[in-house]
Hints:
Strands 11-12-13-14-15 form a five-stranded antiparallel sheet. It has a three-stranded antiparallel sheet with strand order 10-4-16. Strands 6-5-9 form a three-stranded antiparallel sheet, with no helix packed on it. The chain is 41% helix and 17% strand. Helix 2 packs parallel to helix 9, helix 18 crosses helix 20 (628-635) and helix 21 (645-659) crosses helix 23 (701-713). Among the domains are: 164-248, no CATH class; 433-473, no CATH class; 644-763, no CATH class. By secondary structure, the protein is an alpha+beta fold.
Amino acid sequence: xxxxxxxxxxxxxxxxxxxxxxxxxxxxxxxxxxxxxxxxxxxxxxxxxxxxxxxxxxxxxxxxxxxxxxxxxxxxxxxxxxxxxxxxxxxxxxxxxxxxxxxxxxxxxxxxxxxxxxxxxxxxxxxxxxxxxxxxxxxxxxxxxxxxxxxxxxxxxxxxxxxxxxxxxxxxxxxxxxxxxxxxxxxxxxxxxxxxxxxxxxxxxxxxxxxxxxxxxxxxxxxxxxxxxxxxxxxxxxxxxxxxxxxxxxxxxxxxxxxxxxxxxxxxxxxxxxxxxxxxxxxxxxxxxxxxxxxxxxxxxxxxxxxxxxxxxxxxxxxxxxxxxxxxxxxxxxxxxxxxxxxxxxxxxxxxxxxxxxxxxxxxxxxxxxxxxxxxxxxxxxxxxxxxxxxxxxxxxxxxxxxxxxxxxxxxxxxxxxxxxxxxxxxxxxxxxxxxxxxxxxxxxxxxxxxxxxxxxxxxxxxxxxxxxxxxxxxxxxxxxxxxxxxxxxxxxxxxxxxxxxxxxxxxxxxxxxxxxxxxxxxxxxxxxxxxxxxxxxxxxxxxxxxxxxxxxxxxxxxxxxxxxxxxxxxxxxxxxxxxxxxxxxxxxxxxxxxxxxxxxxxxxxxxxxxxxxxxxxxxxxxxxxxxxxxxxxxxxxxxxxxxxxxxxxxxxxxxxxxxxxxxxxxxxxxxxxxxxxxxxxxxxxxxxxxxxxxxxxxxxxxxxxxxxxxxxxxxxxxxxxxxxxxxxxxxxxxxxxxxxxxxxxxxxxxxxxxxxxxxxxxxxxxxxxxxxxxxxxxx
Length: 780
């Protein structure tokens, strides 16, 4: 709703709400921002930092090596173990993302079932539009550096997403006679002489003209009710098509943020306890003017207000969200856009009861108000829970909790100090030597070439002193024996504290037998440590998509199409029909279990163990046409030509050709028709054959028939049976042609086996192999 439509008194009350909740927990939030900012700097490699109470900012030690730098800076060579450990955890939790599965509200209701199936397609489409893999990675990054994770989901219309057509109508009012019984519109001729003077009336007009001319009665042609000749006309509104409008399609947008951008109360234990949510971010003022062009004369520009805004702790908030690449500088043309959501309960902070009632009447579901710096931009009725989804950590009593990275700060500081100490000790390990110039001529010594075993003349000191007494060396610094073990111990403590154990990222195990099975057990134990964040984020992911799918169905204006790749490697169109989302989705669950996903290395081990079993049933499943690609991927030999691979590709291409055409109708053979007629039999009719013929000699009929059967019973095949019945029947005929040849080949093999048994009955009786009979002695 544009701000010009909001009365000034409501604007004032909304500004009061924003100021009140922005100032809430200000000291606590500033402390949180300092911690989050520190973790962001550590992640970016700025681990030598200190907090300035004067500048209220984290300061980075100068690495430039100029004259102002201290000697300690020269030996400051930090290694970012903070980021390394957290990246290992993020990699382990991002092997895959949780899959969404929609369930119908009523399993016996076809509309609910079709809507649930469409919900699964919508979830895949939303994930594709929002690059769900990157979104999941960013959520893990926020969890490690800020703790609480928040997702903002909202619909956005844009012509870049496509357009759909809607008819544009205009209403026209006209006066007509309307039957008072059936409300049918009546022609004016019934109430005038025009009906009686009809030119060349036919048999259909006999009854009506008899009533009009002879009995002076008017009846309704629809319901045969008697009408009053003096019936007055009624005004009727008629819609008239005047054109077609191209409207932009909408998409569901998902954005993930942490505490630096999203402020919620620290006392809230769950999302329902939050009376407000404030989402703030910085952008160039040109972007703000693009969104709100009516504020062109109200938004301040330039460096004059860079961080001088007063109130609402605006400078501190901006500093916390500033990119670490700004080394103490600040962008000069940025403005802060604050989007604030308030529940109706938040209106109660206003002192005047009439103001509370006015806001509840204007925004009954909650209010979203937008401010650009301190300038009012917009306000509308919007519910907080419909747009935002916050994580709930089961290991915390409140929404806000410590980020995972805070456990590694001390480890990073200790590692920095120990590495600096080791580097200094090694460099200072060469001692300094002092020599009596009376013993050694330095000028002559510099002119000589040092050779192994060389003899150099010296001057005698005295008869009672040795030459060695003229030399003195300071004792060099030596690295203590406890330094390196302490460094390893601190790293192990950091791994234990964060859960980034060496087996998680392929590091060397410190203890154990170091066998393959030992590493596998260690990795399983390391992954168990990550079960809690995986479960928490998986449930959060499910809640996000439950809102996004519902919003998508509400905003859906036309059919959508999603292009996917099936297991055979073919690209297929998956349609989301608007007519199929008229039902109700009961609940949305996770498709897989809550266990951590298996990596490709683990899948490879499982597949190879299945092959080693040498079980015919297991091998048949593993090397079936739809699973054979898993073997190639598990072994890493993607260029390996597997048996049946080319046959599978060929048949998939033929299926696409069959779907795009119709069966060919062949007329009956005239000779067979004539013969059947002469014999008094029913002559044969027309036959249908597939548009793509089967090659009896070249095709691998067993594999290709199996591919056809898998398609016919798949989701795509069942959809084609409804929407493309000729194409579906074309594939079915192709499948039957392959099966007919398979049966012919089997019969030919049986006949050959029987013939071979007749030629050599003695061998057949002994082996029973040619005709399939069991082994038995010949009967005498």
